[in-house]
Amino acid sequence: MIPHERSLVEKWKDKPFVILGVNSDGTDTEDGKKQFDKQRAEMGVTWRSFRNESTDPPISDVWRVQGWPTLYFIDHTGVIRHKDVRDEAEMEKALGEMIAAAEKAARASDGK
Amino acid sequence: MTRPVLAALLLLCTAGPVLAQAGETPPAPTQQDPEAVYQELARALNKAISDWRQEAIKAVKAARESGAADVPAIAMRPPTKEFIDRALALASDHAGTDAAVPFLAFVLKNANDEHAAVKQALKTLWADHSASAAIGKALAHVIGAGFQHDAQQEVEALLDAVIEDNADVDVKAQALITRGNLHLQIAENDQQRAAAATDIRKAASMTKNEEVLQQAKDALFEIEHLQVGCTAPDIVAKDTDGVDFKLSDYRGKVILLDFWGFW
C-alpha cells in the first residue's frame, strides 16, 4: 500500500495530484507522535494526513469507514469519482483519467 | 420447512455439547442469574484474549530473533472456540427466552473462525427471537458477522423476520436501518441504493428513540453525501503535526483520500 502510494506521488509529482491521509495512529499523544514520526520517516510517507480524532466525531465516523484502509477518489471539482478501488493497476488508470480531466479543465480556464 | 420445526432441530443440535459436558463441569448454570453468567463469560474471554495477545507477541518476537520465516501458529488464532461453545450451550439452556439473546449476540460479536456457530446463532435468533424486543442487542453485530462468516443468507432472513414480526417500533426501526446499511454496502446500482434509502427513511419516520434516529441520520448522510457522483463533504481538521487544514484547500487537484494507520 504505502510503497505503491509513494510511487504514485513520485510519478505524478508535477501533476495536479495529491494523496491526503486520514490517520488514526493516535498522534495526539507524545508517544504516539514520536512512534508515528519514526515510522513515517522509515516508510517514506511524505504526504499530509488529517489526524482522524481531531474532530468530534472522528472523521472516519462521519465518512462511515467500515474497514481500513478505505480509499476515496476525489476529482479536481471536489466530486467523489470512485470508492475503494484497491487493485493497483485499476487505481492508476482511474487516477490517470482524473488527472487528465483536471489538466484539461485547467487549460480551458487558462485559455479564457 | 416451517420455523418451529427448524427451531426444534436446532435445539437437538445444541443439546449435544451440553450433554457431553454434563459429567465434567459443575451442573446447573441455569440456576444462576443469566446476566451474571454472561458478564462472567465476557470477562473470561477478555482475559483469555489478553493472555493470548501477550503470548503471541512473545512467540512472534522469538520467531523473528531465531530467523524463522513463518508466523508462529499461536499468532494466527485467538482462543475463542471454548467461549463460543460455552455461549451456545448457555443460549440453549435458556432456549426460547430473552435470556438466550445476549449469549447468541456474544457468538456473533466474538467468533473468530467458528463459522458454523455463527450460522447456528443467526438461525436460532431467526427461529426463536425475531419478535422479541431483546433482539436489538444482537442486531448491532449481524452485518459484521454476515461478512466474516459467509452468513449473508442467514442475516437477510433474520432481518426480514424481525422487520415483519417485531411489534417494538424501535427494534423494527433498528432492523430496517441494519438492512439498509447492509444493502448499501453491497449495492451494485442506484436502484439497490434507493431501496436501502427507503428502508432507512421508513425507520426514521417510525421511531422516536434518539440513538436509533442518529443511526438513521448517519446512514442517510452516507446515501446523500458519500456516494460516487456526490460532492465530497469538506474536512476541516488538524494534520498529524497539529496544523489546521481543509480538504477543500486542495480543490483543483485530484485527491486520493486514504483512511490509514501504521498501527
How would you describe this protein?
The complex is a heterodimer of chains A (112) and B (263). Chain A is α+β, with helices and mostly antiparallel strands and 112 residues long. Chain A has 2 domains: 1-66, no CATH class; 71-112, no CATH class. Chain A has helices at 2-11, 30-43, 59-62, 88-111, and strands at residues 17-23, 49-51, 70-74, 80-83. The longest helix of chain A is centred in the last third of the chain and has 24 residues, at 88-111. Chain B folds into 2 domains: 1-151, no CATH class; 168-230. Chain B has helices at residues 3-21, 34-65, 73-76, 81-93, 100-110, 115-128, 136-139, 142-148, 152-165, 169-186, 190-206, 210-225; strands at 236-238, 244-246, 254-260. Chain B has a two-stranded antiparallel ribbon. In chain B, strand 1 (236-238) and strand 2 form a beta hairpin. At the A-B interface, strand 1, helix 2, strand 2, helix 3 and strand 3 of A face helix 12, strand 1 and strand 3 of B.
Chain-wise SSE layout:
The complex is a heterodimer of chains A (112) and B (263).
Chain A: H1 2-11, E1 17-23, H2 30-43, E2 49-51, H3 59-62, E3 70-74, E4 80-83, H4 88-111
Parallel strand pairs in A: 1-2
Antiparallel strand pairs in A: 3-4
Chain B: H1 3-21, H2 34-65, H3 73-76, H4 81-93, H5 100-110, H6 115-128, H7 136-139, H8 142-148, H9 152-165, H10 169-186, H11 190-206, H12 210-225, E1 236-238, E2 244-246, E3 254-260
Antiparallel strand pairs in B: 1-2
Helix pairs in contact in B: 1-4, 1-6, 2-5, 4-5, 5-6, 6-9, 8-9, 9-10, 10-11, 10-12, 11-12
